[in-house]
Structures are given as C-alpha cells and as structure tokens.
Design brief:
It is a single chain. Strand 7 and strand 8 form a beta hairpin. It contains 7 helices and 10 strands. The chain has one domain. The chain is α+β, with helices and mostly antiparallel strands and about 270 residues long. A 10-stranded antiparallel beta sheet has the order 8-7-6-5-1-4-3-9-2-10, with helices on both faces.
Length: about 270
C-alpha cells in the first residue's frame, strides 16, 4: 500500500532526527560513525529519557547544544532490511560531512526538525547527496528534481506559495524511498542499540572524547537502571561487518549552514 501524508499525522515531536540506512545493520552503522557503545534500550520512551538524563554539562564541554546520542534498530523495508536511527533533539542525520561517507555503497534518507521549527529532508545515494530541502519548493543536491513527481503524488504543494506538509509529509516521502513504514508500535517496541558519536570537524564547538563521556556517564550511575543493558568499555557497539559495513568513517568538513540545531524541551 502506498503511503499518504495522513498516515503520519500521529508523529509530531518537538525535536528529532530520523535516519534510514539500507542493508546495513545497526551495529554496522554505528561502526561507520565510530560510535562508542552505550548499550541497548527498549522503546522510544526509554531512549528519550536516557537522552535527557545525561551527561552532566561539565562532562560535555559546558555546552547547551544537543549531545550526539543515537539509537539504531533493525526494521523491514520492501526491498532490503534497513536500520532506523533515532535522535532525540539531535541532528547528525542532517550533516553532509557525516552522511555522505556513511552512505558509501548504500542509501540513506533522513528528516529532522528542531524546537525552532527548522526542518530538513535529505537523500544520499552511495556517497552523493541527491536531494535536500527545508522547504519542498527550494531543493538542492545533485538531482534536486528527482522526487518531484513523487512529492506531487503525495500532495506536496510545490508552487511559489505552497505550504510545507511538515513532518508527516517528510515521513511519507521517506517511506516512498525506503519502503519502511514507521508506526507508533514500531518505535515503542523496538530495541535500540545506542552510542555516542564524536562531532565532525565542521561542528563549531569544543571537541569531546566519546570514551571520556562514557566514563563520566558511568560515574553518574547512568548504566545502573534496569532499562539499559550496558556494553563494557572494551565492547563498543560494533559487530561483524560485511564489506558494506566497513566503509571509512566520515572526516570531511562541509556542513550545511541551514541545518543548525536548536535546543529543545523533551519530545512529547
């Protein structure tokens, strides 16, 4: 069944980023990002709670910006298995210098919004940003018009005064590109493999050491909750990688200025 914008009216968070990765396992994707493992969590509520519970500011460079905490889970698509990556108040899935190299040999699709209503939709294919937009009528990328026919069929108004269909529209468009149907039960029942990702060089804030942040979280008692099964410090969130999982981690420096994140209250 083809998706519709109305299918996704239920999903209206304050701030989030959702990223879809084709035929790469959750551990394989975290490995591509050189994430330091923070264990497994069951359900989106637990993922949201964990985001807002740490780390203390003194362990996070004194920054008020979102810390790069992600949770990845396996989901079915129409043509292949996919990994769905959730960020609460995050934006890693919007960063070209992170996702371009991470998309080597595969497809990545992401959509995002922050507390200031700044939004983004992005589609990468094998290391190339194909289509990107904040407003649907103002698209960029190597093939900015490749999705126009699909967008019109879904109900996007691409006229000069057209209104954005918001998060539901972006989720319906993502389903068209991935075959992944996201539902409330899928998010609520998923087991997320979590990790912390180092900032790419393009983020203009003090660099941090993910391993040091992990150690600080241990001191805070972050892993004592029964909601989380912790990996040991010597057991990062990576597994046996296929050739596609072994793509080099990102080190490029470009960051689209329009994707600047904002701080947020917890998503509801």
């Amino acid at each position: 069944m083809s998706p519709s914008i109305a299918d996704y009216n239920w999903f209206q968070p304050d701030a989030y980023c959702m990223t879809y990765v084709r035929d790469v396992t959750p551990t394989g994707f975290l490995s591509r990002l050189r994430a330091v493992g923070l264990g497994e969590l069951h359900g989106l509520n637990a993922l949201e709670s964990r985001y807002w519970e740490g780390p203390d500011r003194e362990h996070w460079n004194g920054s008020d910006e979102p810390w790069p905490f992600i949770g990845a889970t396996s989901v079915p698509g129409t043509d292949a298995p996919w990994t769905l990556v959730m960020e609460v108040n995050g934006f890693l899935g919007t960063l070209d210098d992170v996702m371009t190299p991470a998309s080597a040999g595969t497809r990545i699709v992401s959509h995002y919004v922050n507390i200031k209503a700044l939004a983004a939709f992005n589609w990468w294919e094998d290391g190339e940003l194909r289509t990107s937009f904040e407003w649907p009528r103002e698209r960029s990328g190597s093939t900015p018009d490749a999705l126009v026919e699909t967008m019109i069929r879904l109900g996007f108004d691409l006229g000069p005064r057209g209104e954005s269909p918001g998060i539901p529209g972006k989720m319906a468009l993502a389903e068209e590109l991935t075959g992944v149907r996201v539902t409330p039960d899928l998010l609520a029942d998923a087991t997320y493999i979590t990790g912390i990702v180092n900032d790419p060089p393009s983020i203009p804030r003090p660099r941090m050491d993910p391993a040091a942040v992990r150690a600080a979280l241990e001191k805070q008692g972050w892993f004592e909750s029964t909601r989380i099964r912790s990996h040991t410090a010597s057991e990062p969130c990576v597994g046996n990688s296929s050739a596609i999982d072994g793509a080099p981690a990102p080190h490029a420096t470009h960051r689209p200025g329009s994707h600047r994140p904002g701080t947020s209250s917890p998503a509801r």
